[in-house]
Amino acid sequence: MDFEKPVVELEIKLDELKKLPLAESPEITEEVRYLEEQINKLREKIYTNLSPWEKLQIARHPNRPRTLDYVGKICTDFTELHGDRLCGDDPSLVGGPAFLEGKRVMVLGHQKGKDTKENVARNFGMPHPEGYRKALRLMGLAEKFKLPLVCFIDTPGAYPGIEAEERGQAGAIAENLVKMSILPVPVIVVNIGEGGSGGALALGVGDRVFMLENAYYSVITPEGCASILWHDETRASEAAKALKLTANDLLKHNIIDGIIDEPLGGAHRGFELTANVLKKILMDNLIELKKVPVQKLLNIRYERLRKIGAYKES
Amino acid sequence: MPISEWFHKKEKYTQITPAIEKRTIPDGVWSKCKKCGEIVYQKELVNNLEVCPKCDFHHELSAYGRLHLLLDDGKFKEFDKHLLPADPLKFTSEKTYLESLNQSQERTKLADAAVNAKGKLNNHPVMIVAMDFRFIGGSMGSVVGEKVTRAIERAITDKLPLIIVSSSGGARMQEGIFSLMQMAKTSAAMARFKETNLPYVSVLANPTMGGVMASFASLGDVVIAEPEALIGFAGPRVIEKTIRQKLPKDFQRAEFMLDYGQIDLVVHRRDLKETISKLLDFFVGETE
């Protein structure tokens, strides 16, 4: 990433230094220590002052941990279930039951790939209607077997394609919004990376909504916004700023309940740490939510959505 | 054509095709059909419910025009008129959001892109929302979301059938995440409405796309579209760019969506009221 270049340059220098035959000598050891200090300072300076557009680059980083990474790390016995029973199975949206610290849960999440090949197979985390309908089916199982639902959001958006439209992409998303708003089990949502519009929201209605520090959540991608406003996608960084799409922005506007800290530089630079924090937050909130009687839970969930909006009354 | 007309003399003057493109159309007298390009006398277009008399293309109908079309004697009681848009993100591009709002408000005389009303449709008392595409593309921000939600809630409380006529490019970009969340809000209200036995007829006018279609517009017990209305989630340009292919000509049009089982009916504007009325007869029984 562009804004990381100064750090990377220093890191290369440091590596070269360490490889020198005289690396053990006092002068070089001193130099190495100095460089390491500089790198840490620079890192902190860069990563604590990221622009929205730079954060978005971290959210889209190819090494960023995906849904199945977190599920594999924090859950046991995750059993992926497949298919919408109508037309297909969508690998860009995964789900199934699992144990979280011995407690039963249903997990759902968008799934991107680790490399180009897997990304092609997973359609870059952009579901077709069958993905959303599989999610709907698994929500039904969560309801039937009283499993709290944990959703991971990480998608650029629902797939814009011919077949997706023919099979009712819009309707599939809408049905999920309806179902999630009245699902009689606790629902916790964590945006771990990309929250791309309606395709993200289709897994996003819950009792608690969290975002990782560098995740974004937006009504439209900055590229799409720039292309509509200025007919110029290269101005996406300006659009990213205007859209107020960072975790901080959403917390400020009371759309989300909390931000999950990431290690300096992003979740991929400290996956274990991120996963552990995430797990603790899930556990704490599940315990709290389980104490709330179902009808009260649903009323609070409704009120939570009901009050979102910025308008004036004359 | 009656046989007598076969023997009519041909008119003896040559018709000259006017250079339509270059001619400026005086505002408010003539209109140019968006589809066939024909110049139509504005009054004739209004009398024909904004449907082109030459090619039958359904142009956008204003929110109040829609209420007049559907409600008996054009009479209704409007609700939630006092809701006005705000600018929660202080959104600026070349033009600020507030400037866009002011311009749209001046041009349409509306506060935002939807009007809520209660009235009678062939004697059926109904709660109705009419969207107006002329107001920032009928986009859904906080006001539209709040109005739709209030209409749904009022329909539940007053035990009224609900009709929503959508016409929208989708969620309103300038209100960012607030717009996106209106999808969840309206759908949650719709979930409650669905627990009643009241009917919801969703009418899709050209176009109904994005966040509006991916929430309340697609959730009707019956979904009716006007002819040739563009209906879908992603816009055709976005799809073309993604798949790098030209789309079929009728792609995402009402007739296409009917073929693919995504909507129930395609109904001409002049028959819309009767069609909804008949559905209400089935779903709420006889009127007195």
Ranges of chain A with pLDDT <50 over ≥5 residues? none
Query: How many domains comprise the coordinates of chain B?
Result: 2
Strand content of chain B: 15-25%
The CATH H-level superfamily of the largest domain in chain A is 2-enoyl-CoA Hydratase, Chain A, domain 1
The CATH topology name of the largest domain in chain B reads 2-enoyl-CoA Hydratase, Chain A, domain 1
- The helix-strand sequence of chain B is EEHHEEHEEHEHEHEHHEH
General shape of chain A: globular
Order of helices and strands of chain A: HHHHEEHHEHHEHEEHHHEHHE
**Contiguous uncertain segments of 5+ residues of chain B:** 17-23
Helix-strand makeup class of chain B: alpha/beta
Explain the overall architecture.
The complex is a heterodimer of chains A (314) and B (288). Chain A has two domains: 2-49; 55-306, 2-enoyl-CoA Hydratase, Chain A, domain 1. Helices cover 49% and strands 15% of the residues of chain A. Chain A has helices spanning 5-19, 26-47, 52-59, 67-74, 116-121, 129-144, 162-166, 169-182, 197-201, 222-230, 236-243, 247-252, 271-290, 294-306, and strands spanning 93-100, 103-110, 149-155, 187-196, 208-212, 216-218, 258-260, 311-313. In chain A, strands 1, 2, 3, 4, 5, 6 and 7 form a seven-stranded mixed β-sheet that branches. In chain A, helix 9 (197-201) links the parallel strand 4 (187-196) and strand 5 (208-212). In chain A, helix 1 packs antiparallel against helix 2. The model of chain A has no long low-confidence stretch (mean pLDDT 95). With 288 residues, chain B is an alpha/beta fold. Chain B folds into two domains: 27-59, no CATH class; 61-284, 2-enoyl-CoA Hydratase, Chain A, domain 1 (Alpha-Beta Complex). Chain B is 32% helix and 18% strand. Chain B has helices at residues 42-47, 63-70, 97-108, 142-157, 176-193, 210-213, 236-243, 254-259, 272-284, and strands at 30-32, 39-41, 76-79, 83-85, 114-121, 124-131, 162-168, 200-208, 222-225, 265-266. In chain B, the strands form two sheets. Chain B has a seven-stranded mixed β-sheet, sandwiched between helices. A two-stranded antiparallel ribbon of chain B has the order 1-2. In chain B, strand 7, helix 5 (176-193) and strand 8 form a beta-alpha-beta unit. The longest helix of chain B has 18 residues, at 176-193. The interface between A and B is large, with 55 and 63 residues.
